[in-house]
Write a structure and sequence with these properties.
Blueprint: E1 21-31, H1 37-48, H2 58-84, H3 93-113, E2 117-126, H4 130-139, E3 142-149, H5 156-171, E4 178-181, H6 189-205, E5 212-218, H7 222-226, H8 231-246, E6 253-258, H9 271-281, E7 286-290, H10 299-315, E8 320-324, H11 331-344
Parallel strand pairs: 1-2, 1-3, 3-4, 5-6, 5-7, 7-8
Helix pairs in contact: 1-2, 3-11, 4-5, 6-8, 6-11, 9-10
Length: 350
């Protein structure tokens, strides 16, 4: 950390100022502090009150959220979190993985740029909060901050809301650092290579080679696509680039969407329904599922895919279900993220 000193030629009573660093602030979705009712309710309230996530009018949505959803959902969501909770560390896997990713990226950045950079992470919802982490960076002398939402594909409900929170945090600073945000990296060669390599390893280690790879992305209302959100198109391109890199036929993989919520029509096909259809109607006995939209394993992968979606496939007659973990802190993933960061630091550090 840069030590604070009095600027040259400043009067004796001028406050000390730390200067000279470039901050790299990595952002992930977030996690509750605990899986019990009140921490879950606070987390879900922050998440589901975000207009980027649920864009219904406040007067219409908030009574439903506060009086109905938040009286029941903290129990069911808390039970799901409890099934994957790291009781030894008393935190969710997302927190553990994001911290490990950050430490490895920090080591890479220090090797490249030395003490010029400061690396940390924040969460869009819950802790550590974006505002608090930006404040720490500014206090440590970061005159420039690169903000990196860990979402390969852009969506208003993920990348944009993380950026929104970062911009709101900048509004609190008397002396704002220069700021950049990292764009979506859904087609970056290093990301595609890391993803493909993880699939090849999983297939090589499978007891029975899967007949089909289900490439499952987090869903969103179809209306968002029609209103201009590029997420669906970027997901499709990731799948296509992945297929090309693997050298597979188009019949060897399929794109689906998971985690639908509420009464609207979401992007289809729904993963939980499609895996059952594959087993029941196409006679698929062995499939693998990978989730390229998630940079870290979390509730949507460890509980939803590896429990709920697996169960849907097996109940429909499927026999072999392989879940391919997210890239997490795999060395190839860290190298890809570090390359993306270095590209976006151009002109700021040497």
């Amino acid at each position: 950390m840069t030590s604070a000193t009095r600027p040259p030629h400043a009067p004796a009573d001028h406050p000390n100022v730390a200067r000279g660093k470039t901050g790299i602030l990595i952002a992930n979705l977030g996690t509750p502090d605990d899986h019990s009712y009140w921490p879950m309710r606070r987390y879900l309230n922050e998440f589901l009150s975000d207009k980027r996530v649920i864009d219904y009018p406040w007067w219409k949505w908030q009574p439903i959220l506060q009086l109905i959803i938040l009286t029941k959902r903290p129990f069911s969501s808390g039970k799901a979190y409890e099934s994957i909770w790291d009781k030894q560390r008393n935190e969710s896997p997302l927190m553990t993985i994001t911290r490990n990713q950050t430490r490895k990226i920090e080591a890479e950045m220090k090797d490249r740029f030395g003490d010029q950079v400061m690396v940390d992470f924040c969460m869009r919802y819950g802790n550590p909060a974006t505002r608090a982490k930006l404040r720490e960076m500014v206090a440590a002398g970061c005159e420039r901050v690169l903000f990196f939402p860990l979402y390969p594909q852009y969506a208003g409900a993920t990348t944009a809301t993380a950026n929104d929170q970062f911009f709101r945090a900048l509004m609190d600073e008397k002396w704002q650092p220069a700021a950049r945000t990292v764009p979506a990296y859904f087609e970056h060669p290093a990301y595609i290579e890391a993803l493909a390599a993880s699939i090849e390893r999983a297939y090589a280690g499978a007891q029975k080679r899967p007949e089909l790879l289900v490439v499952s992305y987090h869903g969103m209302p179809k209306r968002y696509l029609m209103e201009g959100d590029p997420y669906h198109c970027q997901c499709q391109k990731t799948t296509r680039l992945l297929q090309e890199r693997l050298g597979w036929k188009s019949t060897e993989l399929t794109t689906t969407f998971q985690s639908q919520f509420g009464p609207e029509d979401w992007l289809r096909p729904y993963t939980v329904e499609e895996v059952a259809r594959l087993a029941r109607e196409e006679g698929k006995k062995s499939i693998a599922v990978v989730a390229p939209a998630f940079s870290s394993d979390c509730i949507e992968t460890l509980e939803e895919i590896n429990e709920e979606i697996r169960e849907s496939f097996e109940h429909a007659g499927g026999e072999h279900f392989t879940y391919i973990p997210c890239l997490n802190d795999d060395d190839a993933h860290i190298a890809a993220l570090s390359e993306i960061i270095a590209e976006n630091l151009g002109g700021w550090v040497v």
